[in-house]
Design a protein that fits this description.
Elements lengths: L4 H4 L5 H14 L5 E2 L11 H12 L12 H15 L8 E4 L2 H12 L5 E6 L5 H7 L3 E6 L10 H7 L4 E7 L11 H12 L5 E5 L29 E6 L12 E4 L6 H11 L10 H7 L5 H23 L14 E2 L20 H12 L1 E2 L1 E2 L11 E4 L4 H17 L2
């Protein structure tokens, strides 16, 4: 059968490919330490699960409005107003099948063929394919490791041109595991605010996973809270990461533009695709965003902060690797450039993050994601997640240290 060129040109998600390979090796009985998938190891808090169960038992199994129930949209809007400072209302919100779905919808509504979308890199593997699927061109702006992978306002300003339709900002970041300080994020937003017609797509899926324990005073910042960008920001978020609800596939988008006119277009597209997510999940959204869930979310955040410190300390002890202390999300993104030109015990040549990751998995049975998929500037890096317990972290990093020391 014929396959469309837009799909045949698209690469498979590198993170999902690594996860599939690690799972296959485990099925073969191989003891693999999997640092590939960005998925919290915690269970969804019991009160959130109970809310969904009650709704299901009560017969909440029918269609609901495409963008979600009034109660769920109101809960999201209230959260964005009180926690993020975004002036919005329920009609500015749509609940989607994960934050990735929100990003797809936003790009399809914003981008025409030939438009450009500016993307600070290293960046999540799905941004570029979804930009290109919308007919856009991805303009990468590389963040140097020496600056903690954070780009400068001057870099952003130079990247914005007459065809720029949007700028994607992701803080805390996947894959870098860093968060922009509020003053730096505000400075980037000032650049966009001075460019009429350019929209900010702010991916805030990791916003609750920020670690002032690592960088004192650090906190998340929402571009949509700036009055100058209120109607030029699409804020993306969801339940997956902070609430340990990855399998629920609950995301949301917020766009106050035009008094809700942009969101009506987004919902129109959503209605032709997925319609609403599972109806009995709607009360779980309300419960997750209620004060009852806050202590459990904080406990998970504290655990991730402790793991961030541990991972950075253990990676820092490996002479051939260099990295940046994780300050958000649950990723470390070390450079393996110090291993270039060496060979593994089995004779595999190490030339970049891809070859390092392949050899590491084959010989040390540790799965990490090659950095090249995260941007042209990231080929010498690998991403590992610390969304797993301390024992697994110590085991996996000990294998990484032993493998790296064995290179000759």
């Amino acid at each position: 059968m014929h396959v469309s060129s837009r799909v045949s040109r698209m690469k498979e998600s590198a993170t999902l490919a690594v996860a599939a390979r690690a799972a296959a090796m485990k099925r073969e009985g191989i003891d693999v330490v999997a640092f590939g998938t960005g998925e919290p190891d915690f269970d969804t808090p019991a009160n959130i699960k109970a809310a969904a169960a009650r709704a299901l038992e009560a017969g909440m199994t029918k269609y609901v409005p495409t963008p979600g129930t009034p109660e769920a949209r109101a809960a999201v809007a209230a959260k964005l107003r009180t926690e993020n400072g975004i002036d919005c209302a329920p009609e500015h919100v749509s609940i989607t099948a994960g934050a990735k779905h929100s990003l797809y919808l936003a790009l399809q509504c914003l981008v025409d063929p030939g438009d450009e979308v500016v993307l600070p890199t290293p960046a999540w593997v799905s941004y570029r394919p979804l930009i290109e699927l919308a007919g856009g061109t991805c303009i990468e702006v590389p963040g140097a490791m020496e600056r903690g992978f954070r780009i400068t306002p001057a870099q952003l300003d130079a990247a914005i041109g007459p065809r720029t339709r949007a700028v994607i900002l992701n803080s805390p970041s996947n894959p870098c595991g860093i968060a922009y300080p509020p003053e730096e994020m505000r400075a980037l937003c000032d650049v966009v605010a001075a460019r009429p017609g350019v929209t900010v797509i702010s991916d805030e899926i990791y916003e609750k996973l920020v670690y002032p324990e690592v960088e004192p005073g650090l906190r998340a910042f929402s571009p949509g809270s700036m009055p100058a960008l209120r109607e030029r920001t699409v804020t993306l978020n969801g339940m997956s990461k902070a609430f340990a609800m990855t399998g629920w596939r609950i995301g949301y988008a917020c766009a106050p533009a035009g008094g809700g006119a942009f969101m009506r277009e987004l919902v129109k597209l959503q209605g032709q695709m997925t319609n609403n997510i599972a109806s009995f999940f709607m009360p779980a959204i309300v419960e997750a965003l209620s004060p009852a869930s806050a202590p459990q979310v904080e406990r998970m955040r504290e655990a991730f902060a402790a793991r961030a410190k541990l991972v950075h300390a253990l990676l820092s002890e490996i002479p051939r690797l260099r990295g940046v202390a994780p300050t958000g999300a649950f990723y470390a993104f070390p450079s393996v450039a110090g291993c270039r030109g060496l060979r593994s015990p089995a004779g595999r040549a190490i030339s970049d993050g891809q070859s390092y990751a392949e050899a590491l998995l084959a010989e040390a049975h540790v799965a990490v994601v090659p950095g090249g998929e995260f941007g042209a500037c990231a080929g010498d890096h690998v991403r590992l997640t610390f969304a797993c317990d301390e024992a697994m972290l110590r085991t996996g990093l000990a294998r990484i240290a032993e493998f790296t020391a064995s290179l000759r």
